[in-house]
């Protein structure tokens, strides 16, 4: 670039401009930097010029050389046209055409055609040379590669290149000249290995898409001869993979075929011709394909990403977590890219079509497990589909989801535009594409969902899965399939035979659970099950498998539990292997009671940990600007939404199963005492009004697994958002309240009621203060008067205010006494007693004398729903006023009141009709022909002496009960008895109860706890507790002789007499739920002064006016006479 003039020294630069100027330090440094930049720029330009000149010279030289070789080729061809069969002449031409061939040169195409014509006329000697000499093999490989390129040229005849490819690649043709089978296979291996490495399948696919006419549907007949030839070219390496002795050859072929044909987006010829034809090919190397794809699945257990103790792997803040995530992403970028290119929705659809003829052989060759693992990994693509709408209205399915009476319809949209980065650490999103799917991909995924429900495929998997129960990776793969279907479709357990069949395989359910337990034992404190139980985020490498295993277990186990009656649930003798006699009854319960106890303990801890993770104690600090800087695109947010849905669904499933086990324990009592409660819970009991449990409260505005939103101006104007601790407490009380001690929940309920009273009455809650409802009722017509005067139609919409009751005696006179609370309590107790009296007709009694709504009340009372609404209001008023009433309600009716759902299942039938329940269980296990019992889908009902037959389903009298439909009959019969015939009654009752006391507050309690809440515990009155909390007035004190005689007399009372005394003083015969310390006002004894009087009481202030009797006998006699006289308030 520069001439050399002989000077090798650098001459000093002469400055002829005048006086020199001294530059400062910064100027010198700046000029030196600029000069360095100029030198670097010149050096780059020089190097670029050298490279460009070298390439140009090489291009010109090669073109000249190729032109020269073409001239030599043409001259030699003209002079030796008749002698081309000779090896030397053919080698001379092949060396040159392989060097100068260019598809853009028309003459080169003619030269190739001419030489190929000579070769295909007599290929025998050439094929033998290829087998024996590598140089000839190389020449043929290159020539075949050129022929494939030649096929893409539209104006050139295709017959000769196709004939050339067939001659040297078709086994049926080559074996004519190569008799040694081993040499034949080696030759074909090398030919196809070379072609496959040079985009063999990619170019064949392009040829097919260019030359194949449009197809309207699937066909097994080639659209034209060229399509048939291309199909055969695709098929030959695949068929050879089954016979090749080199596994690497089959792996190379299957990998290239998968990448360029199966995994790429479908075109018409691939969808409608190639895939269907391959599916009908019995020799297709499906097993090789599965083994190849297995090599591409990411390692099950990734390396520990926190070996150096990097604290950013465990979230300590949003930005460090982001840095750690970016570093991990850069390390695995190549691996993730390869995985995404191969494992696509097109590959999933292709595998599900190609496996039709090979699933049985896969099991025979022990490759079914690999197949399940691959399908499980690719099935994650299903999560990109829009969620499927529910097709079934099933009580069991709806149990998993939030009740429509509680939650808004947009519960599925459980995420917003922001999510905590710390929560993202538990979400494995590396293998889920964030690119929006096209309509074609969406159609492929819909096809995949349908094919996963294919009966033959499901049957083969279910029949053989027990052989893989000890393989954790196979179980994980199958659970991933089930889990992805569950996320896509809420009713997956009913819509997909795979899930339904696995639900009734106790060995599979048991294996899934103990796989989770084994992971915990092997990994110790780092196991996801242990970490989640402690509210700690697990590693990304373990999170995905953990979620799919646990979610699938909970769904399947939760589905099978309602089908087991209590005998099947508890009978330890039925825990045996499946007998050889298929007629014998086989137990479906996967666990023993001891295992259930431990299982429920683990799920209890996991559910609590998930609640802590669902509501992290951080706020999102990323606005749209930061999101842009950190690369948080819309597609990334979509990925986050998918993972948020997965984890929130896991929380619902764990809670769903846990509630079922707890409900069963309430009936059977197989768990030890205090098994369900967790003492370390720290709920804000000092401010229970900060725990809004009702619908539409602030807690419902917070979604799962996302940060607490930032404060806004509207929050300060209205009310501050909930803290993480408050939201966790609310979630626990709404979803798993039984882990909180009963006494704590009672205090929470009392606090909520107190907050409502403060809102309604303010500070006017003292004696005879505040707004009130004045009511005059006759003792002889107590219910009628109260019903008429307290109906909402009579301007009494709010029963939360105080009542002022005036009794009218049987003589028509007003009873003495001012209602300061005691008269009202007696009125409410007597009113409830009258309303629930079976003689009135609104309620009936079971065989164990428990009350439930009368199904036939509508036959003699048209507006019965108004009465049940009223009765529900007065019972709500009793709970609202913390008044205990002796009201034994049937267990199934209590479940309807305390449960989120109005309907109950067959297990509650024993509390209504034990004989019918026993008969239905006998029918379920009946081993003979059920048709011989002459049952149909009808039920007989007797009303007012008239017998009528009701159909359990349309045209039920025309459907006999058989072995195949007896389960449906049992469910319909139980549903009719428990739900349908009293549905209107219970709905009206719940509405009335909710009018006074939000029914959501009662969801904290089980049916038995609600009975205690209404009637108190069935325990004797604790005199010691009453004595400790008793107050004295006047000259009375604990050592006073009359007080000593009083307590001595009470100790001689039986329990009934003690309750009569308690009712005499407080108007309630039941002690307070949490002891006499909660009695307000406290039990008070005052000196009445006159020993000639009987003891009297002021029930409004719980005051006993006791004359100063000194002897125990006199004290006992006077007390019994006073409390058993049955007078109203005349004695006061």
Question: How would you explain this protein's 3D organization?
Answer:
The chain has 1132 residues and is mainly alpha-helical. Among the domains are: 63-197, no CATH class; 504-674, no CATH class; 688-751, no CATH class; 772-1013, Hect, E3 ligase catalytic domains (Hect, E3 ligase catalytic domain fold), CATH 3.90.1750; 1023-1124, Hect, E3 ligase catalytic domain (Hect, E3 ligase catalytic fold, 2-Layer Sandwich). 54% of the residues lie in helices and 4% in strands. The protein has 48 helices and ten strands. A four-stranded mixed beta sheet has the order 7-8-10-9, with helices on one face. A two-stranded parallel sheet has the order 1-2. Strand 1 (772-778), helix 36 (782-789) and strand 2 form a beta-alpha-beta unit. The chain is elongated, with a radius of gyration of 43 Å. The termini are far apart.
């Amino acid at each position: 670039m520069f001439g050399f003039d002989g000077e090798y020294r650098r001459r000093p630069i002469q400055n002829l401009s005048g006086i020199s100027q001294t530059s400062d330090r910064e100027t010198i440094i700046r000029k030196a930097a600029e000069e360095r930049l100029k030198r670097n720029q010149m050096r780059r330009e020089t190097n670029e010029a050298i490279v460009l000149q070298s390439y140009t010279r090489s291009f010109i030289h090669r073109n000249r050389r190729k032109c020269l070789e073409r001239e030599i080729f043409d001259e030699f061809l003209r002079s030796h046209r008749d002698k081309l069969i000779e090896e030397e002449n053919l080698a001379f031409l092949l060396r040159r055409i392989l060097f100068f061939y260019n598809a853009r040169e028309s003459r080169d195409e003619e030269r190739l055609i001419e030489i190929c014509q000579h070769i295909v006329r007599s290929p025998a000697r050439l094929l033998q040379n290829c087998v024996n000499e590598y140089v000839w093999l190389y020449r043929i490989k290159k020539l075949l590669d050129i022929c494939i390129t030649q096929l893409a040229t539209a104006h050139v005849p295709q017959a000769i290149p196709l004939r050339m490819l067939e001659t040297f690649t078709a086994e049926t043709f080559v074996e004519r000249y190569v008799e040694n089978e081993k040499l034949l296979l080696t030759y074909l291996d090398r030919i196809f290995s070379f072609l496959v490495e040079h985009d063999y399948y990619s170019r064949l696919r392009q040829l097919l898409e260019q030359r194949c006419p449009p197809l309207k549907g699937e066909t097994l007949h080639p659209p034209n001869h060229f399509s048939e030839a291309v199909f055969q070219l695709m098929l030959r390496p695949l068929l050879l993979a089954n016979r090749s002795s080199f596994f690497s050859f089959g792996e190379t072929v299957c990998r290239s075929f998968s990448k360029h044909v199966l995994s790429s987006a479908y075109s018409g010829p691939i969808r409608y011709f190639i895939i269907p034809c391959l599916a009908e090919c019995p020799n297709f190397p499906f097993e090789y394909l599965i083994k190849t794809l297995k090599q591409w699945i990411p390692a099950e257990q990734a390396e520990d990403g926190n070996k150096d103790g990097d604290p950013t792997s465990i979230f300590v803040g949003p930005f460090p977590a982001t840095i750690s995530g970016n570093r991990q992403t850069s390390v695995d970028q190549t691996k993730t890219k390869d995985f995404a290119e191969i494992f696509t929705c097109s590959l999933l659809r292709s595998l599900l079509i190609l496996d039709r003829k090979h699933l049985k052989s896969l099991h025979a060759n022990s490759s079914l497990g690999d197949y399940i693992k691959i399908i499980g990994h690719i099935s994650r693509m299903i999560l990109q589909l829009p969620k499927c709408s529910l097709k079934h209205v099933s009580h069991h399915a709806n149990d998993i989801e939030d009740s429509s009476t509680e939650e808004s319809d947009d519960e599925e949209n459980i995420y917003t535009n922001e999510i905590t980065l710390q929560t993202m650490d538990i979400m494995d999103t590396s293998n889920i594409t964030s690119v929006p799917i096209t309509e074609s991909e969406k159609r492929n995924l819909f096809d995949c969902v349908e094919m996963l429900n294919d009966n033959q495929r499901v049957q083969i998997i279910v029949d053989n899965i027990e052989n893989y129960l000890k393989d954790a990776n196979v179980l994980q793969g199958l659970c991933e399939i089930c889990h992805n279907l569950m996320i896509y479709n809420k009713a997956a357990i009913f819509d997909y035979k795979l899930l339904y069949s696995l639900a009734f395989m106790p060995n599979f359910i048991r294996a899934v659970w103990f796989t989770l337990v084994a992971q915990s034992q092997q990994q110790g404190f780092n196991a996801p099950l242990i970490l989640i139980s402690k509210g700690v985020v697990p590693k990304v490498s373990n999170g995905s498998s953990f979620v799919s295993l646990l979610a699938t277990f909970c769904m399947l186990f939760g589905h099978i539990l309602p089908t087991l009656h209590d005998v099947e649930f508890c009978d330890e003798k039925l825990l045996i292997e499946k007998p050889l006699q298929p007629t014998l009854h086989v137990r479906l319960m996967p666990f023993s009671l001891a295992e259930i106890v431990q299982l429920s303990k683990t799920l209890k801890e996991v559910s609590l940990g998930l609640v802590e993770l669902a509501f992290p104690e951080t706020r999102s600090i990323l606005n749209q600007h930061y999101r842009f800087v950190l690369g948080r695109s819309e597609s990334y947010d979509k990925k986050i939404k998918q993972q948020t849905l997965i984890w929130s669904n896991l929380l619902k499933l764990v809670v769903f199963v846990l509630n079922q086990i707890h409900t069963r324990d309430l009936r059977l009592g197989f768990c030890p005492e205090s098994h369900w409660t967790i003492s370390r819970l720290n709920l804000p009991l000092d401010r229970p009004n900060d725990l809004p449990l009702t619908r539409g409260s602030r807690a419902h505005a917070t979604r799962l697994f996302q940060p607490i939103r930032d404060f806004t101006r509207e929050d300060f104007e209205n009310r501050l958002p909930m803290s993480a601790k408050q939201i966790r407490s609310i979630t626990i009380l709404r979803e798993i309240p039984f882990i909180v001690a009963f006494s704590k929940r009672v205090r929470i309920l009392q606090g909520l009621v107190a907050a409502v009273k403060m809102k309604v009455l303010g500070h006017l809650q003292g004696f005879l203060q505040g707004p009130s409802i004045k009511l005059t009722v006759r003792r002889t017509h107590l219910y009628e008067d109260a019903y008429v005067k307290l109906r909402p139609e009579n301007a009494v919409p709010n029963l939360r205010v105080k009542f002022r009751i005036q009794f009218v005696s049987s003589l028509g006179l007003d009873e003495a006494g001012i209602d300061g609370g005691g008269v009202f309590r007696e009125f409410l107790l007597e009113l409830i007693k009258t309303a629930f009296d079976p003689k009135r007709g609104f309620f009936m009694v079971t065989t164990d004398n428990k009350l439930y709504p009368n199904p036939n009340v509508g036959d003699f009372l048209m507006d019965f729903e108004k009465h049940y609404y009223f009765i529900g209001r007065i019972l709500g008023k009793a709970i609202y006023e913390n008044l205990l009433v002796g009201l034994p309600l049937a267990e199934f009716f209590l479940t309807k009141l305390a449960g989120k759902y109005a309907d109950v299942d067959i297990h509650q039938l024993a509390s209504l009709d034990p004989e019918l329940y026993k008969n239905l269980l006998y029918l379920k296990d009946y081993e003979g022909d059920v048709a011989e019992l002459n049952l149909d889908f009808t039920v007989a009902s007797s009303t007012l002496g008239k017998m009528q037959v009701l159909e359990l389903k349309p045209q039920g009298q025309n459907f006999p009960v058989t072995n195949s439909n007896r389960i449906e009959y049992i469910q319909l019969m139980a549903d009719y008895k428990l739900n349908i015939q009293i549905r209107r009654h219970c709905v009206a009752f719940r509405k009335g109860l909710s009018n006074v006391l939000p029914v959501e507050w009662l969801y904290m309690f089980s049916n038995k706890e609600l009975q205690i809440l209404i009637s108190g515990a069935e325990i004797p009155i604790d005199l010691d507790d009453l004595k400790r909390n008793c107050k004295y007035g006047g000259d009375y004190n604990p050592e006073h002789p009359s007080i000593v005689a009083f307590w001595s007399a009470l100790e001689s009372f039986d329990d009934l007499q003690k309750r009569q005394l308690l009712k005499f003083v407080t108007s309630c015969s039941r002690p307070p739920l949490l002891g006499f310390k909660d009695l307000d006002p406290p039990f008070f004894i005052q000196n009445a002064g006159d020993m000639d009087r009987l003891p009297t009481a002021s029930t409004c202030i719980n005051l006993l006016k006791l004359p100063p009797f000194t002897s125990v006998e006199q004290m006992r006699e006077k007390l019994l006479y006073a409390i058993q006289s049955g007078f109203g308030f005349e004695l006061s």
